[in-house]
Write a structure and sequence with these properties.
single chain, 78 residues, mainly alpha, de novo design (two linked rop proteins), 0% strand, elongated
């Protein structure tokens, strides 16, 4: 898994000159979050994660998604 790309995209976007560019990088971060979610499904299906650990990680992914979506929505119309 490569969860490092999520905060990296947020940081890179925050340093951009326009809000539109920042939103674009937040979109990249959301895409990276979905990649992590997919990799969790694959890891569970291959038996690398038990159900309890998988459920806990999915809850973390969901919380990050809610925060990220809130940030994206707060920038709409700017």
């Amino acid at each position: 898994m490569q969860p490092f790309s999520i905060p990296s995209n947020i940081a890179e976007g925050q340093d951009r000159c326009t809000t539109g560019e920042f939103r674009q990088f937040l979109g990249h971060a959301r895409g990276s979050l979905l990649e992590v979610e997919t990799q969790l499904v694959i890891a569970r299906n291959l038996g690398f994660l038990d159900e309890q650990k998988n459920a806990a990680l999915f809850e973390h992914v969901a919380e990050i998604g809610r925060i990220l979506n809130g940030l994206i929505n707060s920038l709409k119309g700017r």
